[in-house]
Design goal:
The protein is an alpha+beta fold. The protein has 22 helices and 6 strands.
Length: about 675
Amino acid sequence: MKILDRYILTSYLKTFISVFLILMLIFILQTIWLYIKELAGKDLDIIVIVKFLVYFMPKLIPLVVPLTILLASIMVFGSFAENYEFAAMKSTGISLRRAMSGLSIFIVVLGVITFFFSNNVIPWAELNSYNLRRNIAKLKPAMLLAEGQFNEVGTYNIKFADKSGDRDQFLEDVTIHVKGSDGRTNATVIKSKSGELASEKDSNVLKLILLDGYYYSDLSPKKASAKKKKPFIKSAFEKKIINIDLSKLNDVDFDEQSQTDKYNMLNVVGLNITIDSLVKQSENAHSAFSKNLQQRSGFSRFNKKIVRGSKFQASKNKTSKEDKVYSGDLLNIFETKDKIQLVDLATKSLRSSKQIITSKETTIKNSKAWLNRHIISFHEKFALGFACVILFFVGAPLGALIRKGGIGLPMVIAIVLFLTYHFIGIFATNSAKSDGFNPIFASWFSTLVMLPLGIFLTKRATADRGLFEGQGVLEPLKKLFGIKKVSIDPDETKYTSDSEHYETLSNYDNNKLIDIIKNYREYDYSIAYKNTALGILNHRGITNQQLKFAGHFTNQKYEESIRLKNRFDEDSQLACILYIIFAAFALPGRILENNGYDFIGNILFTIGIIVGILFFFALIRSFISSSIFNKHIGKESIPNSILFILVGLPLYFIIYLYQKKKTNKDLHLNNEIKKTA
């Protein structure tokens, strides 16, 4: 391994490990927060809690690793570009592609490792975490009684509308279903207006006192004729006490695995076998369903009449020895009596078939969704490894293009790109689960969306071209909306040789011209007046370098601040205009579409999405301009980055007003400091 490759790999690994640990810690804390209700108040051993976290950590890898690769790539390569390390490499003939080649091998190996991890470790973690959660839920179920839903406690299903009291011991509108001897049938129903949980804190008996209610119990007579009457016993009570033994429920084996065949618990081999079996089951179910419909139609008993009638009609209409195809009305081959029976049978059959199809529709849809989940899980294992490679080729050239390291701008861009990647994947897979999208394509969709972006950024970075060039699509939009500011570039803003100001300046000596350049703001001269004086000095043989070394360019940094602020004003104003247009088209388009105006709504929404894409690029460019301006005047950009993440995309006009006011204030303060220095 060459020294350069070792240096790049070492720098990347340091950042990668740091970002990975930080993100993993954040997601673990989020996991604890999500499942704190299942863990709290259960008197769990520390070993069980550690097991819980260990089982959940591998499931975070599909989120943490791609985000880590993207963020670390932007930070490392942005730092190289910001510190002119890439410029030093290029001066020795080393291109960006060559600098990325050594690290690319590491990323490919990491992608392969990620695939094996998702194929072996994640299913193991899913298996253990799912069963551990089920076992924890069995422990002290009295503490998990939730209002508005049935809570299973042993053979009892308890539901109540509300709970109150200092220990949530008072219940309102209680409904209890008691399972029968078979463990499935709800043989008894108890309803009461109120109830109270009166058991002790550490008791193994759940004592439930019910007040003012009714007791319903089904009877199971031996005679079939009596069963048809569906007899039951009903009784009223003012107070009823139910004691539920929890000793067996609290004796939980946390290592018990009662379910092992869920789609996210299987590896590639297991998923492949399960998918084949589900496909065969689906085919058999469809075949049996079609046969059932045919048998229930009742047309089979008319086959003989159809054949007999068709032969009779054929012999009746026969004009030659050759058979002819009958092309008339089908009902004409039957007699009037058979016609009536046939039409009546068709009507009844259609009604019956419609009811069967309606009742079977949910079952078929659920079976299809279950099959799609297995297909998605199968392909996601492969897509994750490819996503790691593609996100590297998005992040590395992007960092080289924005020329910004650290955790400010790179973090913002990485989070925006990753959220785009992640939400596209979520929307695609959710649509595929409901059979609205191809499940194979849905698994790869977000990765395929990032692929063109990676190719585009890599080409621009290797060709040493900027992320947003002056002749790009945003510059014509600035001219279209009339938001181009006057440039302060010396070649663009100075008087021509036939002007009166040029003639006046030409009559001054060099010292007077230098004084104008140094103090043009105190004299209230325009920037064009100062640039014209500078051009005359250059024409007389005094270069900008000589003036700089002599200390006559005292206002150079201020002018650069004005130029950077003007660029930011242009970019932010364009982003604000595009944001307003996006909202003005997309929201009404969606409203019209939801209210039945599909054609107009789709057109407006499509225009809004196109403008929204332009707004996204203008937003990124605006933030880059803001970061460059803040860096130039020595201001921290991290608070600005956090504000951008929280508010930027949904409510950009707030960001626009805030940043515009802030940049004006910062420029004024910076100017005052320079004057007093």
